[in-house]
Every structure is written in structure tokens, then in C-alpha cells.
Design brief:
about 775 residues; alpha+beta; Ubiquitin-like (UB roll); Serine Threonine Protein Phosphatase 5, Tetratricopeptide repeat; PH-domain like; 5 domains; 7-stranded antiparallel sheet; nucleotide-binding; Prot_kinase_dom; ATP binding; ATP-binding; Ankyrin_rpt-contain_sf
């Protein structure tokens, strides 16, 4: 057949073209036909179908036939123009320079999803198992909270590995996905679920495998596709029709055209099968008995999430009559019959998973995570039976609404709208006060800027009522969201609020405005150790020993809480008024790290990274042990170990280079650093063993932690006394406003840009 494409590209000489192809050709094959005509490689072409006013992006591995494309179909081809060579070269130079300065270096990541799909398309079960094993070893710890794993991860078109396996008919691979509990109901951008694909292509064994999934939604209907039974009837696959009916597929659901499955049946065999299942008992079960069983269900549960500071007790209400799961902020709101804070349509729910224990908090919590078209939501109770009841009730409600078409709206009848549907899951619950004290931007006067970094600035401020001086860390919300750094900012606040140690920075308050997040931190007037180190070539051994010993105590405290710091460097070690250290900047710290749950993220400053972080084999507490060795090396020599201006050479040195010491470094110091920076993390000493090394002979660790050991004095401008009078003079002398920002108005405090439970005041 002949297809006509409109070219969406200003540089194209002709905006329409025609090609000949067969209906069984794949979209990728069509791209290969278009490629020489447009003088563009296939991977830079996107094919789009305009159907009933909606744009459908065509997936490479699907056939033209699967989209019901014919000669009259409206088709578009979009050319993705690559950057010019000079632009790419400039970008690479900037990236290299930033790698030496920024706190984070982009991870050299593998295209796990691409490799997974390739194995599935080849039908290689053994290759797939090997790939999954590699992924579990290298990347499992990189999954934040309860995010979906590789098997449930979609590509840009919304296709997961299970979709491809069902399309290709690889039932053994489908069985593997089912056994591992992969999301079996996810809907692609072009409205296919795995069960719909298997039914459409006639892969009965794939259908059989999917029906064994405990969370399969056999009656799920999508726009233009109907249910799996509609597809099997329309395509004439009697064996699949039989399978679906044996598993209680509904025969009375109407598709978007108002047709039940029997009305689209294409063979006499199917016409004979369906009536056998349409007796009075089955109809009565659907219309009355199930109706009696399905009643609304309400109860209090806890809401939590990866960016929630506090878990929030809310009331969930399962409204069967309207087809919604409603979220109320509290029981009183529900009793007063006020509108729910958020409504989740049951037909939009793809999957519900049960897990035990919270990453941040109660290990006895029994959680249920709802994966839906509008986002992921995590709730929990403290009783396993109650959580199981909620899951069972919601799943029954989904099935009931599918059979009775409850909750269908204009989108289901006329197709999806081109708009953003996802709510801000991480911003559902808000608060504008903490511990009874209202803390906001107006509570402080800004004196001067202390420094700036990749994601924000730090100011010296004075609290207006107490005249106490603080450091105010300002982070731009929009920037954090755009660069996917919000979870790190919230994670830092989450960790700092419960840390209490003499050598770790204290956070007294946290608040927010519509534009920024703010953390009010202890002010350390004597700067950081990098500043002092830059003023001299290196530290004397006694000075280095003192500061590294206090750092060890701070890190040891963090490790006792299963927190890995992951960003040890002189810039993050501040000096307080008395001359003791304060470990600061917990943006990269990670909780709950142990041998069974290593931290997999590639982060930290390049020069101080442990070898295992470059190899992406996972980092544990031993990565911080390496970091202690790295900063001790810099204290004693004036340069980081293995340093090079070339980032690739730096990484190569870290992984394979040998430590070299100048003559001024004594043998005892060389020995401890070689042990701390062993390439093999399993051979590094524990911090307890480090403290007993001969290099630290003479250190009374208990006296040191009590701050009874006199700190060294660095420089002539050492600040030791409180400076309230000086600060007030500074306030009077600052006539202009250094930072312009505005607090929330009262009516704005529940806006969706208000980060959940961020505000905090230390009691």
C-alpha cells in the first residue's frame, strides 16, 4: 500500500512524500525506507499518526498493521536535528571543566532497558537472565525507595519489556516477568497493555502466563482497543477467548464504540463459545451478587514517600459508586462531607504492590504502593491484615468498575487529552508551621552572601527576634525539580533534622517560600578547611591529625545510623567559633546503607571518589573510609591523591594508580593512608581499627569527642567570641536588600509548589 507522510522540518525541501510498504512491515522498516529519501539516519526520525484528533507516536518494533494504518491515514515524520559538531565539542569541554568543580559527576551509565529489549526481541531467555543478574548486582541499590525496577521500566513510548515479550510471543520470557512480579497492567502511550498485545497477536501461551499473575486486570479496557476479550474475538482466536472466559473475563463490557465482545466476534466457533458462558447464573453474579459484595470502604492509613519529611495520617475512602479512591487530609474533613484533597480514579490504577518496612522509619510498617496513570502513591498501616484488606478491596473495586464501566469519563470515550495528568506525588501534604513557631523569610535579615554552589547560595543572616546569627542555605525549587535534585535537598533536610553530634552541623529551622527552600544552619565563622589549606601549602602533621580525628568521630556517628556521607572533602569541613570541625552539606548522604543495600549512585567530588564508585559496583561505609584517607593525604601534601587536570586520567589513576608520597610524609602516615585507600573496599580497616593505628597514638578519643582537647589555631583572624553587637551593626549598615523573596500568603499555603512537610523548628 502507499502511505503519505507530512514532513515536520523547516530544513526539508518538500514537506510531503509517499512510499510503498506492506502492512506487516515494522515501523523501523518504514523508517529505513524514509531514511535515504530524507537523507537522515533512521534513529533521527519519529513517525506519528494523527487519529481522531490525537497524536500517536509509532514504536519501532510494532507493525504498521497494529496501528490499523491504511492509505488514508494521516501520518507525520519528524526529523530530530542533531547538534552541530562545534556545539557538541563546546558542550564536551564545558562538561569536562565542570567535572572538576561540581559536587556531582554524571554517571557513566549503561542502557539497561535497551539491552533488555534487545534480549527479548532475540528471544534469549538465558541472555535475559544473565542481564538481569548483572543489573541486580550493579544497579539494585540505585533504586530510590519503591521505584519500579528494570522489568517494569517503560521506554519513551511507554513500552516495558513485558509488552515486547507479549508482542513477540515469547511465553517463557513472559513467565519470567510474571514470576518476578513485573507490572502487568501498564498501558503504553498507544493504549496497549501486555494482555491486549498477547490477545491481538494470538499468543495463547503468553495469555495463559499473564493470567497467572496475581494482579492481572483481565477486564482492563483502553481507548480504541477495548478489552483483551474484544481483541481475541475480533481477531478470531478462539483458544484465547476460551482462556479469558475460563478466568472470568466479562462478556458484557462495551468498548469505545458501544460493542460487547460477542458483537465483534469474527468466527462461528467464537459465536458458539460465548453463549455457553452467558447463562443466567453468570449474569446474576455480575449484576447482583457482586454488587452486594462491593461496598464502599473507609479508614485511616499513613501516607509516605521518598520526598516526605514526615509520614502523614490521612483517611482513604473507596467510593465504588463513583469509581474513585479519595484522599482526605483527616477524618473530620471526611465526616463533614467536604471535598477530598485528591481523587484517584480506580480505572487508572495499573498495579498495587505490598512491601514491608519503611526506608526512613518504622520497619514494622506494611505498605501498599499504588502504581497508576497519574503517579505512584505509597500508603501503609501497622497491621498486615489491614493492608491486605485494603489491597483486596481496591483490586475488587477496579474489577467491578471495569465490568460496569463506572468512572468512565470523556477521556475514555474520546481518547486521551494532550495535557499533564500527573499530580505532584511528592507535594501532596503540606505544612506552614513547625512545633508551634511560625518560621518564614521575614523571620531573618540577610547580612551578606557567604558562598554559592551548583544548586543554591548560602547567606549569613540574623534571626530578628533572638538576634542569633545563622547560615541560611537557599535552594531554588524550580531548578531542583528541573534537574531532578529535589529528592537530594529534601533528603538533606530529612537527615539533618535528627542528627545530633558535636562535630556535625546543626540545622535549627527549615522553611520555604513559593520560589525557594531554606535551611537555617549553625554559623561557622572560621570558614572551611579548604580555605585554610589554600592559604598554606599543607598542614603540619599535628594539625592534620587533629582535624582528621574529629572527622573520623563524625563519620563514625553517621555510620552507626547506617548513613553514608559520600562527599568527604575539605570544602565540606567547617570550623566553628571554638575551632572544632562541623561536617556540613548532607545533600549526597544516603541512609540505610549496609552490605545488603549498597549505595549505587555515582556522586561526590571527582578527586575524592572511591574506586568502587567509578566501577559502579556499589559503595558502602568503606567508601567514606577511603574519603578519610583522601582528605588526610591532601592535608599532608597539599593536593588530592591521584590528581590530574584531565578527568579521564584522574579516574584511571583512582582505579589503577599507586599512591606516591613526598618525603615530608612520615612512614606512619603513609601506612594509614595506604590502608584507608586500599583499592579493594573489603580490605579497608573499620573506623574502630583506624582509631587504634599508631598514627593516632596519644589521641584520647573520649576527651576529643567532649571537646576537651584544645584545637589548633589557623591564622590571625580566628573568631572565637559571639559577635551579636557586630552583627546588629551590620544590620544597621545594610540599607539595600541582598535577596528579594516573599513568603506564602495564607491562602497560598496549600499550593502544589509547597514541598510536603518541609518546615521544621528544633525544640
Amino acid at each position: 500500500m502507499q502511505l503519505t507522510f507530512k514532513v515536520l522540518d523547516l530544513e526539508a525541501t518538500d514537506n510531503t512524500l509517499q512510499i510503498d510498504c506492506l502492512s506487516e512491515h515494522s515501523v523501523q522498516h518504514v523508517k529505513s525506507i524514509l531514511s535515504p529519501i530524507l537523507n537522515q539516519p533512521p534513529n533521527l526520525l519519529r513517525l506519528i499518526q494523527l487519529k481522531e484528533g490525537h497524536e500517536i507516536l509509532l514504536s519501532d518494533d510494532n507493525s504498521i498493521e497494529s496501528y490499523e494504518i491504511n492509505e488514508s491515514s494521516r501520518l507525520l515524520v519528524d526529523i530530530i536535528r542533531p547538534e552541530r559538531e562545534e556545539e557538541l565539542a563546546a558542550r564536551e569541554r564545558i562538561k569536562t571543566k565542570r567535572g572538576l568543580k561540581d559536587q556531582q559527576e554524571p554517571a557513566p551509565s549503561k542502557d539497561w532497558l535497551g539491552m533488555l529489549i534487545a534480549k527479548i526481541m532475540d528471544g534469549s531467555l538465558s541472555g535475559l537472565l544473565q542481564l538481569i543478574g548483572e543489573y541486580d548486582r550493579e544497579e539494585a541499590g540505585n533504586v530510590m525507595d519503591e521505584e519500579e525496577d528494570l522489568l517494569s521500566t517503560p521506554n519513551a513510548e511507554g513500552w516495558t519489556g513485558l509488552h515486547f515479550a507479549c508482542q513477540q510471543g515469547h511465553s517463557n520470557i513472559v513467565q519470567l516477568f510474571v514470576a518476578r512480579g513485573a507490572n502487568c497492567n501498564r498501558e503504553t502511550n498507544d493504549n496497549w497493555t501486555p494482555l491486549l498485545l498477547a490477545s491481538y497477536h494470538g499468543h495463547a501461551e503468553c495469555v495463559r502466563a499473564l493470567l497467572k499473575h496475581p494482579r492481572i486486570q483481565i477486564n482492563k479496557m483502553t481507548f480504541s482497543k477495548g478489552t483483551a476479550l474484544h481483541q481475541a474475538c475480533r481477531r478470531g482466536y478462539a483458544a484465547i477467548v476460551q482462556l479469558l472466559l475460563e478466568n472470568n473475563a466479562s462478556m458484557t463490557i462495551e468498548d469505545h464504540s458501544g460493542l460487547i465482545p460477542l458483537m465483534v466476534a469474527s468466527t462461528h466457533e467464537i459465536f458458539e463459545i460465548i453463549p455457553k458462558y452467558m447463562g443466567e447464573r453468570e449474569l446474576q453474579k455480575v449484576r447482583s451478587e457482586h454488587r452486594d459484595e462491593m461496598t464502599s470502604f473507609n479508614g485511616e492509613v499513613f501516607y509516605t514517600g521518598s520526598t516526605q519529611i514526615h509520614d502523614k495520617q490521612i483517611l482513604l475512602s473507596l467510593d465504588i459508586d463513583q469509581g474513585y479512591l479519595n484522599i482526605f487530609m483527616d477524618k473530620d474533613t471526611f465526616i463533614k462531607n467536604e471535598a477530598p484533597f485528591h481523587k484517584m480514579r480506580l480505572l487508572d490504577i495499573w498495579d498495587i504492590r505490598i512491601t514491608k518496612g519503611l526506608q526512613y522509619g518504622n520497619k514494622d510498617a506494611v505498605c501498599f504502593i499504588i502504581h497508576s496513570k497519574t503517579g505512584n502513591f505509597k500508603f501503609y498501616t501497622l497491621m498486615e491484615d489491614l493492608t491486605n484488606m485494603w489491597v483486596r478491596r481496591i483490586q475488587d473495586g477496579i474489577d467491578y468498575c471495569q465490568q460496569h464501566k463506572i468512572g468512565l469519563n470523556e477521556e475514555d470515550q474520546n481518547g486521551p487529552k494532550n495535557e499533564e495528568l500527573s499530580p505532584r506525588e511528592d507535594m501532596l501534604f503540606t505544612s506552614n508551621s513547625a512545633n508551634g513557631e511560625i518560621i518564614n523569610f521575614k523571620s531573618f535579615t540577610i547580612l551578606e552572601e557567604l558562598g554559592s554552589g551548583s544548586f543554591g547560595k548560602v547567606y549569613k543572616v540574623i534571626k530578628n527576634d533572638t538576634k542569633h546569627v545563622y547560615a541560611l542555605k537557599q535552594l531554588n525549587k524550580q531548578f531542583l525539580v528541573k534537574h531532578k535534585q529535589l529528592k537530594y535537598a529534601v533528603g538533606e533536610c530529612k537527615i539533618l533534622r535528627y542528627l545530633s553530634h558535636p562535630f556535625i552541623i546543626t540545622m535549627d529551622y527549615a522553611f520555604q517560600t513559593p520560589k525557594h527552600l531554606y535551611m537555617v544552619l549553625e554559623y561557622c565563622p572560621n570558614g572551611d578547611l579548604m580555605t585554610h589549606l589554600s592559604e598554606r601549602s599543607r598542614f603540619a602533621e599535628s594539625v592534620a591529625r587533629f582535624y582528621i580525628a574529629e572527622t573520623i568521630l563524625a563519620v563514625e556517628y553517621l555510620h552507626s545510623l547506617d548513613i553514608v556521607y559520600r562527599d568527604l572533602k575539605p570544602e565540606n569541613i567547617l570550623i566553628d567559633r571554638a575551632g572544632h570541625i562541623r561536617l556540613a552539606d548532607f545533600g549526597l548522604a544516603k541512609e540505610n546503607v549496609n552490605p545488603l543495600n549498597p549505595a549505587m549512585s555515582f556522586c561526590g567530588s571527582p578527586a575524592y571518589l572511591a574506586p568502587e564508585m567509578l566501577s559502579k559496583t556499589g559503595s558502602e561505609k568503606s567508601a567514606d573510609v577511603y574519603g578519610i584517607g583522601a582528605i588526610l593525604y591532601e592535608f599532608l601534601t597539599g593536593m588530592p591523591p591521584f590528581y590530574s587536570d584531565n578527568i579521564k586520567e584522574l579516574f584511571r589513576n583512582i582505579k589503577r594508580g599507586l599512591l606516591q608520597f613526598p618525603k615530608v610524609v612520615k612512614p606512619e602516615a603513609q601506612d594509614i593512608m595506604r590502608k584507608l585507600m586500599n583499592k579493594d573496599p573489603t580490605k579497608r580497616p573499620t573506623l574502630t581499627q583506624v582509631k587504634s593505628h599508631i598514627f593516632f597514638k596519644g589521641i584520647d578519643w573520649e576527651e576529643l569527642e567532649k571537646k576537651k582537647v584544645r584545637p589548633p589555631r589557623l591564622g590571625s583572624k580566628w573568631v572565637q567570641l559571639d559577635e551579636y553587637e557586630e552583627e546588629q551593626a551590620n544590620v544597621m549598615s545594610h540599607q539595600k536588600t541582598l535577596v528579594e523573596d516573599e513568603d506564602y500568603a495564607e491562602e497560598e499555603e496549600l499550593q502544589e509548589d509547597n514541598i510536603a512537610e518541609f518546615n521544621f523548628a528544633r525544640s
